[in-house]
Fold this protein.
Amino acid sequence: MPNVRSTAETELVQLLTPEGERVEHPGYPLDDNADIEGMYRDMVLVRRIDTEAIALQRQGELGLWASLLGQEAAQIGSGRALSAKDMAFPSYREHGVAWTRGLDPMRLLELFRGVNNGTWDPEEHKFHLYTIVIGDQTLHATGYAMGIQRDGTEDEAVIVYFGDGATSQGDVSEAFAWSSVFNAPVVFFCQNNQWAISAPQERQSRAPLYLRSSGFGFPGIRVDGNDVLACYAVTKKALAAARDGQGPTLIEAFTYRMGAHTTTDDPTRYRLSSELETWRLRDPIERVRAYLARSGQAGAAFFAQVEAEAEELGARIREGCRRLPDPAPLDLFEHVYATPNSIVDAERDLYTAYLASFEGEGAAR
Ligand SMILES: Cc1ncc(C[n+]2csc(CCOP(=O)(O)OP(=O)(O)O)c2C)c(N)n1
Ligand SMILES: [Mg+2]
């Protein structure tokens, strides 16, 4: 019988308090594979990627950037819970998950610079292309999960990332309905960062988001999204359930978008700085640092080494970004479809003629 697991886990699962104190949760013991130092390093490095990318956008080197600031724990904890064969479907802010899948951050910068439309091989990294159409990827993930189910693959699961705002999209409800009735091996990982651009979470739902799944007949759980250990443990358990034939789980990672929606947004227009200050005290990186230092698991040498790595990565990103070649204008029409398409062909011809109309103009001047 599918969907018999409890839906009654109402509290926020937390394994590490904002002060860096380790607490236990009976349903989510931390397994021995949890590499806390490794996850600290991951979070510091992805925050550095983010900081550099915002600066590069400000310098005109990127067209746009969607910041993950504040959501490092949700992304690294869940990303590190995946096994090598699991498939992840991101939205557009999952740079931390991309990191855990071994994707070179330069692939993300290419996309946000407009050099290409995303060219990594989803199968190679088990990390699908970014999806801008809000909520769409929940259907892709559900279809993929139903596919591996039909292939009889037992050691694979699927995770899909989406935001609080996306829960208002029809696509997400459809994905919930399909995955539930077909018992698809998919984990719905909702990063509730409290905002959908300028729309606050209370404009999306009167009920806590993790309860949404109960109406569809599968369990939902709310986890402290700024606690990397809890995100890791909760996601691991949900993925194991999916692989075990128990169907989908909704995870609501309760977190906060500390930066702007994207570099085109100005959050001071719609939210109070006091809210940001409250969340700053729950910083996902600081609590792990405090825990590692206080418990003696890591000392000054470790933190200095991570810092040096971040410096090196920052330099590589800055230089790499400036060296990216400009694309040929007609490349825009490549990779739209796998096979020839008459509409794309006609548009290419039109644009070729348009570009040709500039030839000779320079000579005339
Ligand atoms: C179908 C669709 N409608 C509207 C938009 C414009 N849009 C881009 S991001 C966004 C807000 C999404 O908020 P949320 O799901 O909470 O994700 P977050 O950006 O906070 O990570 C909207 C409405 C879009 N990209 N796709
Ligand atoms: Mg949001």
Summary: The CA atoms of residues 211 and 220 lie 6 Å apart.
